[in-house]
């Protein structure tokens, strides 16, 4: 039975895989390439629900309702994190501009009161930009770690989502195929039996 205290991700198939959605009071890192759809996943989470939240954009032009956080220091970033659903786009920019120590401190310490207050924070981490040590430090700081992968096989694109870390719960034992459609990500909720 799904835990009704969890926050919907905005994607029915992902909610199913997470037994109801993201836990409140959690640090979620979503990792993938810029073409994997991780921004769409983050936006679907941010737009779901009535409680409101903040989408802090560090490295692109913010869309309607998002906060332009490009010039903010870490104290201002933490101060701008309001509501139950918060997205930082992107953690990669924070690492590149402030260094891994400052980024780790931000995720673990500077936002502690926000997480302890029940907010769910989603951080985007772009693959191929960081050293293995930097990626490992971010993985360790997260309560939930999700990886989006895409591969090209001939004339087909295969996209899969893996839940690799899930605090306080069993990690699913399979990757989940997904599609990028006009309104965002759509996950397959069926399994093939071979």
Attribute tags:
194 residues, alpha/beta, Rossmann fold, nine-stranded mixed beta sheet, 29% strand
Provide a compact summary of the structure:
The chain has 194 residues and is an alpha/beta fold.
Task: Report what the structure shows.
The protein is of the alpha/beta class. The protein has a single domain, classed as Rossmann fold (3-Layer(aba) Sandwich), CATH 3.40.50. It contains seven helices and nine strands, in the order αβαββαβαααβαββββ. Strands 3-2-4-5-1-6-7-8-9 form a nine-stranded mixed sheet, with helices on both faces. α4 crosses α5 and α5 (100-110) packs parallel to α7. The longest helix has 11 residues, at 100-110.
* Biggest beta sheet summary: 9 strands, mixed
Chain-averaged pLDDT: 91
CATH topology: Rossmann fold
- Tally of strands: 9
What portion of the residues fall into strands of 2 or more residues? 25-35%
Give the overall shape. Answer: globular
Spatial order of the strands forming the largest sheet: 3-2-4-5-1-6-7-8-9
Rg is 16 Å
Low-confidence stretches: none
Counting copies of identical and different chains, the oligomeric state is single chain
Helicity, as a percent range: 25-40%
Q: Would you state the CATH class?
A: Alpha Beta
């Amino acid at each position: 039975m799904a835990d009704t205290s969890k926050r919907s991700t905005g994607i029915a198939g992902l909610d199913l895989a997470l037994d109801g959605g993201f836990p409140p009071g959690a640090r979620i890192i979503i990792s993938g390439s810029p073409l994997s759809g991780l921004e769409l996943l983050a936006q679907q989470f941010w737009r779901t629900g009535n409680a409101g939240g903040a989408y802090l954009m560090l490295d692109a032009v913010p869309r309607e309702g998002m906060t332009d956080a490009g010039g903010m220091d870490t104290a201002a970033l933490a101060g701008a994190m309001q509501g139950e659903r918060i997205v930082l786009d992107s953690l990669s920019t924070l690492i590149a501009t402030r260094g891994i120590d400052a980024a780790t401190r931000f995720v673990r310490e500077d936002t502690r009161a926000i997480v302890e207050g029940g907010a769910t924070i989603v951080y985007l981490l772009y693959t191929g930009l960081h050293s293995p040590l930097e990626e490992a430090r971010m993985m360790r700081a997260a309560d939930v770690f999700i990886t989006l992968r895409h591969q090209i096989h001939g004339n087909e694109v295969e996209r899969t989502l893996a839940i690799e870390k899930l605090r306080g719960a069993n990690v699913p034992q399979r990757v989940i195929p997904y599609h990028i459609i006009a309104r965002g990500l759509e996950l397959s909720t069926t399994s093939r039996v071979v």
